[in-house]
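Recall the central idea of this unit: under ordinary conditions, the amino acid sequence of a chain determines the structure it adopts. In this exercise we apply that idea directly, starting from the sequence alone.
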Amino acid sequence: MDKINLALQLILSLSILVVLHELGHYLPAKWFKTRVEKFYLFFDPYFSIFKKKIGETEWGIGWIPFGGYVKIAGMIDESMDKEQMKQPPQPWEFRSKKAWQRLIIMVGGVTVNFILGILIFSMMMFYWGESYLKTSDVRDGMVVDSLGLLLDLKDGDKVLKVGTLPMEKFNAALVTNEIIINQANTIVVERNGKEETLQVPDGFVTEMTKYENRKKSLFYPRVELDVKKVVPEGNAGKAGLEDNAKIIAVGGTPVLFQHEFKKILQDKKGQTLDFTYMLGQDTLHKDIAVSDNGTIGIELEGLPVSYQKYGFFESFPKGASMAVNFLSSQLKAFGQMFSGKIKAKDSLGSVFSIAGMFDTGWDWRIFWNITASLSILLAFFNLLPIPALDGGYVMFLIWEVITGKAPSDKFMEIVNYIGFIILMGLMLFAIGLDVSRWF
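Accordingly, the structure predicted from this sequence is:
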């Protein structure tokens, strides 16, 4: 079921992006009285799942559930319709329109994707707002994971600054981003009441960006072990453990923090252990069975979460800022890739990698965040000056606007073939990487 959820979310997200992208081409084409022969969600070689002709346009759904296209009359595109191009130009064809009109038609798709990304980010801020942990509220500092140890971080540290960025929010992902994207080379931490400056070691960025480390975090908040609520029907409830108990030892092993407690339960699945706890001034004991899942049926106290709500009009500058920051980070990441600090094979992935980004339980906040990010990326990649992408057409149209000379149909046909081969090669390479990772 988890894989089905991931697949459905991927298909839904890409469908939204593709339909709106192609609508960005369709609407200005119709505005300039250009004939649109097909509008398809997904690709339809040999046959389609659904099709219906309305006016001059055939609307349909293909059977390969990724991508989509609009076929604009008189345009050399992925359909490679040579016969149409052999006929004399007609007034309703793309090639008969003025260069500036063709340019608007071609940039329509990426424009919609940029606007969509900003809109989704904005509506997320309006609907959900922004929640975060203040560094000052994480009283006991961090629990360091394996990658954090490479930075010489220690349990109990609090990150105060990364490079020149003050860390007012407790956010391991932001620390990672500053080191990888903005090339921060120092981390200032509070350790045992004193400030210390740590140097980011050479080669850390390469290690952090390895594919197998993509879901790892540098650290997590360290939280005291306090029971908030006991589930009556759980093992702890049946044994008589009470709400607000403070567990201080499990099976004779002292515990102070939640991560220590959870590790013991995972190591002792299916066993009955002695739980020592404080209730008021009393020290009590209960024998409680640990389930096969490593739980006993309690809810632990969490840290205070800060929350910022955005009004409708306030959400748009915030959404635009999120979109710009995301795109800026991606551009810097590409720069790091070309410099060799980030390996391309660790960063590239196909639709299988994209599917793995979604939540198996279908979390709508995660879904829309990924969809907004993909929309910005789709716009950026489509603007790259590669023939067969929108950016390739835009490059030649700008040349035509400047010089007044349009490339020949034969030239456009050849470069589109080349661009198509490049794109297919990249796609196959990315799929090959995912398959190799799978095995």
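The chain has a mean pLDDT of 88.
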